Structures are given as C-alpha cells and as structure tokens.
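pasting for the record
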Amino acid sequence: MNILIWHVHGSWTTAFVQGPHHYLVPVTPDRGPDGRGRARTWDWPASVEEVTPAELRERDIDLVVLQRPHEEALAAQWTGRRLPAVYLEHDAPWGDVPVTRHPMSDRPDLLLVHVTHFNRLMWDAGSTPTRVVEHGIVDPGPLWTGELAHAAVVVNEPLRRGRYVGTDLLPFFGATLPLDIFGMGVADVPGRLSMPTARAFEDLPQAKMHAELARRRVYLHPVRWTSLGLSLLEAMHLGMPVIALATTEVVEAVPPGAGIISTRPEELISASRRLAGDHAEAAELGRAAREAALARYSLDRFLNDWEWILREAAG
C-alpha cells in the first residue's frame, strides 16, 4: 500500500513507518511544517520516500493519514483527487473539555483514530466513526544504569506550553535533586526558571537522548494536560523508574509497581528524593516499568492494530 503521510510527530511516525508499506512524505524547499520530509534525528527505513507536491500528482496513492485539519484540503490540492483517508488525532482536546467538538466531527465518510482511550473519551466526534490504536515503541533496549542521581524530563517548548506540561513544577523537583531537561526549546529553561543545578540538552538525536536518559536515576513526567507522552513510554522501555502526575492516560500506562504516580506533587517530590538515594528500589521499579511497557506498547501490537485500520479505511 502507498500511504501519504506528513512528518508531524517524529517519534510516533518512527513507529508507524516500521510497517510493511511504502510511505510518501511531502517535502518542500524550506522543509517547513507542511514539507519536513524525512526525519533527521530518527532512524527511518528506506520505505519512507520524500515526494514534492508536484510529484504527488503522478503517484499512485492508496490512502492518506491526516493529522491536522488543513491537510485534507492540501492532499486534494497536491494530488488532484480525493483519497481514502484516516484522521489521526494525537492530542487531548484543548477547548472546553469535555464538550470540545473535534474538527472532524460528524464526518461519517472519515475514520477518526485516537492514540489513547482518554483522548477518545474527551473529544466529541459526533457521528464520525472512531477507533483507538495505542502507541507502539521501537524498543531501545534495557539501557538504564541510573548511575547519576539525577531526574530526567523530556519536554518540547516548555516555556511556551507552561502549565500544560508542568513547567512551573520543575523548580520544585529541581530543589530535590539535579534535573536534566531534554527536548526542543529547553536551552533557556534553567536560567528563566532560576534553576542553577538544572541542565538543558536540546535537539539530541533519538539514540543519543536514550543513552543519556538511561544514565539518570529517575524519569520525571510532570505533565498536567496533553496526550500520553511517548517519551514516558520510551523511558519505561529503557527500564527507568518513572515518577508522573496521575493525569490523562498516565493512570493506564503506569500500572502499580511500575512507577510512582499521584496528583499530589509533594508525594512525587518525596518519591524522587527517596529513589535518588536508593538505587536498588529504582532498579526494581524500572524493571517493572519495562515489563509493563513491553506488554502494552510493543511495536508488533501497534503495527498489527494499524493494519486493521488501514484495510478498513482503504476499503
């Protein structure tokens, strides 16, 4: 199957393109949001082909995976035809939850796929048929050593996204143990939040970031409101003990014994302090976290689920 898909979410797409199909990824001269082309910091197979908008008119395309509302019109404009489509929703709703209408609501001609059951629950899709395909992870392996008694957090654009991703909580955790912050737009965070012991690691290649995360004692997930972070699942695959706010889909992703979750930041701060001084407990939690992640978020399960979705949508 030839599948048209934009490079919107690098980590998610890395798992998706491990499937058995040929993936056409738009590329434009500026490599802007509508034409990023192939990833540069993730490892994608040769079955992912960069295609210009002009070239798309001449290509056989079986299905388009839409991820942003404007892509439907863009696909029609660039290909010159209407394609069978799946709309993939990465996020929880951002409006008046829980009555937020999805931009693809009341579209019986379209299949809307959510990445978590929480997201499906919270979006009002009206009569649009919906499915859930939970995340799958390309397993980085059990790399955790926990040799550094630091907490690691991965977050993109924390200063812009603020309370949504728990940026305001970082100084409180940073006062307990050294905090290492990874992601896009994190360079200014230690200075802007007056965190002298914090360090920022920006735009590392994925394999390098995994290796660095695995050296930290714990993984911190202070997110209040967004979809389930793939970095949390990657940390669990690494065998890291995780400390997370018990919000959105986290309560499903981190079962008892696989990490410490709570809606009380003070409890999480206390847990991070305890694990910083107890490598053995951290290791035990990390082993359970990896076991839980492999059982629920394996790449094979993810790709098999998507095969059913793609066949249904393509007719």
